[in-house]
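As practice, study what follows.
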Amino acid sequence: MSVKTALRVIEIIETYARERRPLPLSELARLLGVPVSSCLALIRTLSQLGYLYETGRRQGYYPTGRLLAMAQRIARADPVLDRVYPSLLELRDATQETIVFGKLSEARVVYLDVLDSPHTIRYAPVAGEFRELHANSLGKALMSMLEPDARHALLGRSPLTRHNERTLTTVQALEADLELSRQRGWFMNLGESIPDVCAISWPVTLSGEIYAISVGGPIYRIEPQQQEYARILRAACTALEQRG
C-alpha cells in the first residue's frame, strides 16, 4: 500500500466520523476530492475486508462494527493510556472539566487522550488533534522540560502565529511566561488560542518520556479555580511519577 492510498483510507474514516451517515460513492468521492474510479477501488477493498457495507442498493456505504471493535482492542492495549487513565478520570471527576493528556510530536502537541467535561458548555477537543506549542498550556508545560537551546530550536521550526491579542508571539515573551509558570506552579493558556477558553497544565515524566496533563474549560469557570485545580493536577502528576 502506498502512502497516498493509506492517507485516503484514513480520510475515508474521518469523513464518516464527520458526516455520520451512509454516503453514496459519488458523494464520498466528492467529499474526498478524488475521482469516482479511485474511490470505488478503495470502497471495494474496504468492503471485502469487512470495514464497510452497502446499506441498500444505491443508498450508500457505511462502516461496519469491525472498525469500532478494532479501535477498542487497540485502545485497551495502549501501555501508556492504560497506566494514566484512572488518574485522568479522577481529575475529570474532581474538577468536572475537560482533561487532556498530551505529548510533543515534532514541533507540535498531540492530544493522546481526552476526557470530556460533563458540563453542557465545555472545552471539547478530540484525541489525535495537534496544537501549536506557543499558544497551548500543554505545549508550555512540555517546553518547560527542555533545555533552552532545544526549546528555542523547536520554536524556530514554525511561526508563532497570533490568534488574538493575548497570544504570545516572541520567544522572549514565552520565556518570561514559562518562568512565571514554574514559580507559581502551573502553566496556563488564558484565551491565547481560543477566545474564552482557559486551560492549566503540568508536566509528568513516565518511563523517561515527558507528557503533560491539562484541565480546560471556559475562562469564567477555570480562572477562579486555577489555584485549586493546579494543586489537584500537580498531586496527580506526582502520584503517577511515584508509581513508576
Summary: The mean pLDDT is 93.
